[in-house]
Each structure stands twice: as structure tokens, then as C-alpha cells.
Amino acid sequence: MQALTIFTALSLFLTIFMAVPAPVTRADTQPVTGLIIPLFMNPGPDWEAVIQARLAHPSVPIIAIVNPDNGPGSSLSIPVLNGVEDLQAAGVTVLGYVYTSYGSRSIGDVEADMDSYRTWYGVNGILFDEMSSSVTSLSYYTTLSSYAASTGLTFTVGNPGSDIDMGLVGVFNTTIIYEDPGLPTLSFLGGWHALFPRSDFAFIALGVSSLDSSFVQSASTHVGYLYVTNLTPPNPYIGLPSYFSDLVAALDPGNQSSATTTTTLAMTNSSTDTSATTSNVSSTEGSTVTSSSNGTTTQTVVPTTSTATATESSTITPPSNNTATQTVSSTTATPSTSTSTPIGHTSSTSPDQTATGSQTTGIDASSSGNSRPQVATGGPPPPAWFLISMGVVFASLFVILAWFRKSGVLALPWDHVAHASPPFVLPPFASPTKWR
To answer: Model-level pTM?
Structure first.
């Protein structure tokens, strides 16, 4: 009986322990950050500009959100249909806009709008606007996501416009966690979001007067999709930003140059006061400028596609004897920052945006999108309800064991040590009459 009781208690404990959620291990399968464009204007030059951008930068994923009339409207629009087909032919993923009133709109009405988009325009998926950021709406949005998938709408986006509860991550393919004037901070885009694939998140920045390409490239390591525009509320989506082509180019890995250098070996000899310098400076795109003055050799790499400099130098110092001295100098590379401070930033050289290294400069195209962990290594701490439940379980076990001991059903060896007379004889574990 004693063994059975111990076995039961251990089994209960292990069952509760195994119920703890496992860490998130979903991999990030999107190698390049893309654009998510609210294409709310009528088909025309802006739609054509998106098509041309996609053709010019085929490696950059582009999502276009169409919104005929605060949703699909009451009837089919032929110009919109033709525009959607042209976008899809160029490789653009087209989503239809529907609003959810933060989880209060009828699911049937939302599903009806989804059906209209699918049958009239053949869109690839749906953007759910006015999404609630609270996990209390999980069931509501899970129902919509499941319905979309069942009808062939394979790509879904949620737009609360602000950060969300962790429990909502993964309900849609991606969630827009920022839609405000100015640029979000890199610390906001990182944080707990790094526990999940970056493709789970997107942001939209409004009213940004000039494009900071270095920020775009840094932010692309945290999110799967982004959009930056100089247009401001209340109508920020009536056209494309003035720097639209530069925005697309900033996300294209083919336009992100890198410069790498090797070390410089400088040998000096006091008797001749001469130096032999061996260097090897390579750059994806750019030119090398070499200058010598007073025993000092300087090489500068000037890229043609991004503003970055890499400088290495060796200085001759006559030694006190004729012994040859070898000095190895490393390279310091510092990417330049925008000369103008974008809206939402207090400094164009914030620690989050400036990167320095001993042998590389800029963002390497080969590692773009892989600078953050692609597989989460941990999960959130246990919620309060779990800790309370554990406390109740252990308290219940303690009460049950105490009752067993008091009633005589369960007796522990040390319960009788104080009353035993030599020689000590262990009494029976439990009285047979207790089970009759």
C-alpha cells in the first residue's frame, strides 16, 4: 500500500510537470523581408508602379492590400479585377481588406466579405483590420483564420496597429504590430518578439519625411514585412510614398554591398627605416584608394552602392635594435547613417542602428534576415494560473496524506520510533480492518 501511494503521488506530479508548454520551435522560412502595401487607391499609375517594382526586384516579396469600398463592396468592379490579375501576374500577393471592429463584428458578416473577395477577385488572402490585441479574442480570430484556409485564402494578416498578447502570435501568417506616425524603435521590434520567427510580425510607419535605408535594413532583421510612407493621416494610403522605388531597393539583397578586409603585416627595420606592407582589400562594389606619407600607408575602400568606409593603416616605429618587428593591424568598418533624422527618432546614430566591426562593414546580403535566431530557444514564463494550480495540487496532496496518517491507513516508519520499546519492531503498514 505504501508503494502504491508513493507511485500515485509521483505519477500525479509528473503529469502536471509534463503539461507545461514546450518552448516555441517554429522556424523562420522567409529569407528576405518584404513590403506590405495598403493599395487603397483606384487602379492606375500607383498600381503599375508596384508591378514595375516587383519586376525590378523579384527577390523582394510584395503584398498588396486592395480595398474597393471599405471591403469588397456590393458588386464586382471590373477595373479592380483587372488590376488584381495584373498584380498577381507580376508575382505580387494580393489580399482583400475586411474590418472586424476589434472582435465585435459578426463572424458571419466577415466571412461573407471573404467570400466576395474570393469569388469576385480571386485574391490570395485577407487582411483583418481593426484586430483586437487581447488574447481574449483568440477564439474569434482562430475561427476566421480557419475559415480563410478552408476556402483557399492561404495568406492572412491581422492588423491591430499595436503590440499584441503573446497568445495571438501565429493565428495569422503575420501581424502588424505598429501602424503609427514615425519609425518604431528597433528595441520595440525586438524584445519578446525575437522568441518567434520574424515573419510573424510587420510594421507600417506613417509620415516619415525621408527614407533612412540603414534603418530599413536593420529593421528587416526583426520583421517579415514593412512599409514606410511620407503620407500622413487621415489619408496615408491615397498614394505611394515619394521614395517608393528606394524603399523597395533597400530591401533587395542584391543592392546591399559588403566590404571585407584582411590584416596588414608591417615589418620595420631600424637600419633601413623601410617598410614592407602586404594588404588585401576586397569589396562587393567599389574602388580602392591607396596613399603613402611619412612611412604611413593608408587604404580606403569606397563602395558605390552604400556609404561605408574601411580604413587600415600601419605606422613604422623604429625599434631599439636590429630585430625585425611584426605588427598586425585590424580593420575598423563603420557604416554611415542618414544625414537627416527621420520622424520618430531622436538621433540618426542611435546604438540600435549603428554597427561596427573589426573586419566587415554594412549588412551582408548573404546573411540578411538571419541575424536573429530563426528558431526560438525559450518560451514565456509560466502564467499565474499555472503557479496557483500547482500550489493547490501540492496543498491537496499534503491534506490527503495527513488524513491517511491520522486515520491509520498510512503509517510512516518514523511515526513509531518514539513509542517503540527495544528491540524496535515495525508494526504492520495498515490495519486490515480499515478496508473491510
So the answer is: 0.58
